[in-house]
Amino acid sequence: MALGMAAAGLASKAFGLNQPAPQINGESEKLLVKNPELPQPATFDRLPLSWYKATVKRLKERVGEKGVKAIVLQNPWNIIYFTGLFHSSTERPFYAVFPVDEDALYWYHPGLDRDLVTTWWSTENEYYFDFFHAEGGHPEQGKVATGKTVDLFVWLLEGLKKRGFADKVIGIDTELPPSKLQKAKNTLPQARFEDISDICLKMRMVKTPEEIALTQRAMNYFSRIHAFARDYILAKGTDATDFEVGEAAREYGTNLIMQDIKRDGRPHTAVGIAVNVSCRTGVATAYPHPNQFFHKKIERGDALQVSGVVRIGGYGGELYRYYQIAPWDAHREKLWEVVTECVHIQERESKAGRTCAEVAAKIHQYQVKMGVAKYIYHRPAHGEGMEGHQAPWLALGDPAVLEEGMMFSVEPGLYDPEKGFGYNPSDNLLVTKKKGLLMSLVPYTKEWMFLKL
C-alpha cells in the first residue's frame, strides 16, 4: 500500500476537524534500504502450535539430563514461549506443568483464564476462582464461601503429588525462596526441586529460524512506520508537537499491520501484537530515560527522536532514529557522527564467538578516543526478546559469548544535558557467523536524519 492516500487519511484524524491534514507524499519509503542479506519475513501471524511442541521436546531433553521428571513453568515469558498461551500476568499465580515422560500439558491457573486455557493446548486443567482464593469458594459454580485462604503454591504441590511426582525431581523455572522450599519440603518431602531457569532463558536467547522470520516481518512494518513519521515531520514541520507525531505514527502503524492479520475477534489470533511509537523533541532527548511527558512543539535546531517497539506474535524489537533539525553546529554534528559510527562498530563486531564485553569495549574505546567520554551514560546494548530487555548484555561486565541467533538492541547513545540534546539510536541486530545484521530497513544517514523544516 502506498503511503500517500492512506497516510493522509490517518493524518487528518490526528489534526482534528478544524486543521488541514498535511500532505504525506511517501517519499521517505523510497529511501528505505534494500538489504539482500536480511532473512525472509514470515507469512504467518504467530508461531504454530507445532513449533511450541517441538520446543518443549527440546526442553525435556535438556532437563532430562538432570533427572527431571516434571517441568513447572511459572514465569509468564516462559509460559508464553514454551506453550504459546498468550495471557495477562498479574498477582494471580499461573503454572504450566509438563511431565517429561508423557506427551501432556497440565495447567494450574486462575479461573478468569479458563476459556483461554481450555481452547488452547491443554491435556487437563485445574483452576482456583481468584486471588485470594477461599477454600470451597466458586461463585461461578454456585458456591459462595468465605473462610480459609488457600495457599496457591501448596495447591500446586498437591496437584503434583496427585500426578505422581511426590518422589521425583521437579524442574521449576525459578530459584525458590526459603519460605517456598519449606512448603515444598512439608508437602513433598521426598521430591527434589531443580532450578531450570537458566536452561529456559538460554533457549529463549537463541532464536530459531521461525522466530527470526517473524521478527523480520515486524521490523519491515516498523521501517515503514518510521518512513511515515519522517514524512509527517517534513510535512507538518514546526506546527506539530512530538506527541502528535508519535500518535499519528502509532495509528498509521496499527492500521498498516492489522490489515494483514488474520483474526476473528476470538482468543489465540492477533496475539502478541504491539505498536508502541513515541517521539520526543528538544531538551527531552538529552536524557537516556526522561521522566517528563512528551508534548512539545518541534522547533528549528531541535534534536528529535522517533522511537518504540513493534511486535507481531510476540516477536519484533526496537527501532529508534535520532534526528537533527536545522540549524546545527559542529558539536552536534560530531556527536551524531560518533553515535552513527558506533552503530557500525557494533554491526561489524557482533559475530558469533565474540564476548559481550569485547564488543562493548570496542564501542566505548572509540567513544573515548573521539573525546566524547563525558557524554556516555550507558552500555551500548541489551539482548532482545519478547519481554524487551533480555540477557545477555552488551556490557563491559558480561563475559557471555555471542551465538548465532541471538538478538540485541543497538544503543550507543550520547547525551549533552548542558546543551539540551542527545542522540540515541536503536535497531534489532541479529548475530551471525560473520557480523551483526541490522534488521530494519531505515538508513543511518544524514540524508535521512538531518532535516530542514
State the order of secondary-structure elements, H for helix, E for strand: HHEHEEHEHEHEHHHEEEEHHEEEEEEEHE
Could you describe the largest sheet, including whether it forms a barrel? Answer: 6 strands, mixed
The CATH architecture classification of the largest domain is Alpha-Beta Complex
- Please indicate the percent range of residues in DSSP E strands (runs of 2 or more): 15-25%
Layout of helices and strands:
Layout: H1 3-15, H2 49-64, E1 68-73, H3 76-83, E2 95-99, E3 106-110, H4 114-118, E4 124-128, H5 152-162, E5 169-172, H6 178-187, E6 192-195, H7 197-205, H8 209-236, H9 242-258, E7 274-281, E8 303-312, E9 315-318, E10 321-325, H10 330-349, H11 356-369, E11 381-385, E12 388-394, E13 407-408, E14 414-416, E15 421-423, E16 429-431, E17 436-438, H12 446-449, E18 450-451
Parallel strand pairs: 1-5, 3-4, 5-6, 10-18
Antiparallel strand pairs: 1-2, 2-3, 7-8, 8-9, 8-10, 11-12, 13-16, 14-15, 16-17
What does this 3D model show about the protein?
The chain is built from 12 helices and 18 strands. The protein is an alpha+beta fold and 453 residues long. The chain has 2 domains: 3-31 and 207-451, Creatine Amidinohydrolase, CATH 3.90.230.10; 49-205, Creatinase/prolidase N-terminal domain (Creatine Amidinohydrolase, Chain A, domain 1), CATH 3.40.350. The strands form 5 sheets. The protein has a 6-stranded mixed sheet with strand order 4-3-2-1-5-6, with helices on both faces. Strands 7, 8, 9, 10 and 18 form a 5-stranded mixed sheet that branches. Strand 16 and strand 17 form a beta hairpin. Helix 5 (152-162) runs parallel beside helix 6 and helix 10 (330-349) packs antiparallel against helix 11 (356-369). The chain is globular.
